[in-house]
């Protein structure tokens, strides 16, 4: 069955129910009014409390919001507010940690949730945006650090930070961040976004980390698309078009399917890029066809490669491959991998829904 002939909203709903049934739990399994994403299924025994994967919870919150926007229901809305509250509780009463990329992701999810995040929204956004401003220095020509007290500035911190502050109306700051990424991290040979740069004590660039990660493309694309809508300067649209072309030609395979990055944090990488490809397809007319093509090619591959376990899909860490039955030590047991697949289904559903209403 062709991707255009299926109901992607239905498939997103199936993915939603599978992930929540397996992973969404009360803190410690017992604390009333709390909701948090269990990081492995099947659960590892014994289960270590740390690291607790703060930024995975931010993407779980974003996926919950996708589901609520696709099909609003009261219990989903209450789940969004509960997860937002619980992140702070689980994080020792703070919205912040050392990592600027982590807090930018949570800020984006809470910002997008708006009133659905309940009373958590204003305090989270105030703390996070203040901290992001503190992360900018002129070393290496600008940009935010990856984490506090480090020598590394990278795309994964600067991309979501730029999207967040642009949506907050801080267009000048967002433009400065995104220009820095474009001027510093674009690979001259491929046109893709490299990981980051190491900064020497005197503020000069000591080394470029040349690794090409899928989600670096997604977050820079998202920043360019956001600024194209808010600033209107042609460079944002031009950069978005060039980047999608580079992803198609240099990163995706001949079938249009993005590479996976294993489990752990890498399980989220391709799903994040799918989210911002869908955003680009809907907001940049020149990208409606190519960005949509990428989203649907990946969604079709991931769905075909799923395993049906305990009444629901398990997505493969490599979307073009068949998923094995998840067990401890396999990437498919990680919440991140399953969130990436769910996020992809929501991106396809959003595009299909928009196309039907045109």
Automatic annotation (TrEMBL):
Top-level division of the source organism's lineage: Bacteria
Could you give a GO molecular-function term held by this entry?
hydrolase activity
Keywords (alphabetical) are: Hydrolase
**The protein's name in its UniProt record:** Glycoside hydrolase family 76 protein
Q: Which organism is it from?
A: Pseudonocardia aurantiaca
């Amino acid at each position: 069955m062709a991707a255009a002939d299926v109901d992607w909203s239905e498939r997103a709903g199936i993915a939603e129910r599978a992930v929540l049934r397996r992973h969404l739990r009360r803190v410690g399994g017992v604390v009333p009014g709390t909701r948090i994403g269990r990081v492995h299924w099947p659960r590892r025994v014994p289960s270590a409390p740390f690291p607790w994967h703060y930024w995975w919870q931010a993407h779980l919150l974003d996926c919950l919001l996708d589901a609520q926007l696709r099909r609003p229901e009261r219990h989903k809305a209450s789940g969004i507010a509960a997860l937002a509250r619980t992140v702070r509780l689980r994080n020792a009463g703070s919205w912040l940690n050392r990592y600027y990329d982590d807090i930018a992701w949570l800020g984006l999810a809470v910002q997008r949730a708006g009133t659905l995040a309940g009373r958590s929204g204003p305090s989270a956004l105030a703390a996070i945006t203040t901290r992001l401003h503190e992360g900018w220095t002129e070393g290496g020509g600008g940009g935010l650090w990856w984490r506090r007290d480090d020598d590394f500035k990278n795309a994964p911190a600067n991309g979501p930070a730029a999207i967040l502050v642009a949506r907050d109306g801080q267009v000048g700051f967002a433009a400065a961040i995104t220009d820095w990424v474009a001027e510093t991290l674009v690979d001259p040979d491929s046109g893709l976004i490299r990981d980051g740069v190491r900064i020497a004590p005197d503020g000069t660039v000591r080394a470029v980390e040349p690794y090409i990660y899928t989600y670096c493309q997604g977050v820079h694309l998202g920043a360019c698309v956001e600024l194209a809508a808010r600033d209107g300067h042609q460079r944002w649209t031009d950069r978005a078009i060039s980047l999608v072309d580079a992803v198609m030609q240099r990163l995706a395979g001949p079938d249009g399917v993005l590479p996976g990055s294993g489990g752990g944090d890498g399980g989220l990488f391709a799903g994040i890029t799918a989210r911002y490809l869908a955003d680009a397809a809907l907001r940049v007319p020149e990208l409606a066809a190519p960005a949509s093509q990428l989203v649907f090619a990946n969604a079709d591959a991931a769905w075909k490669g799923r395993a049906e376990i305990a009444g629901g899909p398990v997505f493969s860490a490599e979307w073009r491959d068949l998923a094995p039955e998840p067990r401890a030590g396999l990437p498919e047991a990680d919440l991140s991998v399953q969130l990436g697949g769910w996020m992809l289904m929501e991106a396809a559903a959003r595009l299909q829904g928009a196309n039907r209403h045109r």
